[in-house]
Amino acid sequence: MRVFTDTGGKVKQSEFKRWLADRGATFEQGTKHLKVYLNGRQTTLPRHPAHEISEPLRKAILKQLNCK
Length: 68
Hints:
Radius of gyration: 11 Å
Largest sheet: 3 strands, antiparallel
Number of strands: 5
Helix content: 25-40%
């Protein structure tokens, strides 16, 4: 599964969060991060809404949440 392929492998944190929420993810606020829960799994997402997330980080988050 590829997400946001037109951005050259990078996506803004706020867009990725919205994409995860559309798939049923829930979020819990941390100090400098968000805890993300989906499919009985948990991971963290850096909380910098205007900044981009790199492709390797995006893939790692999807793998940790068992999203394929």
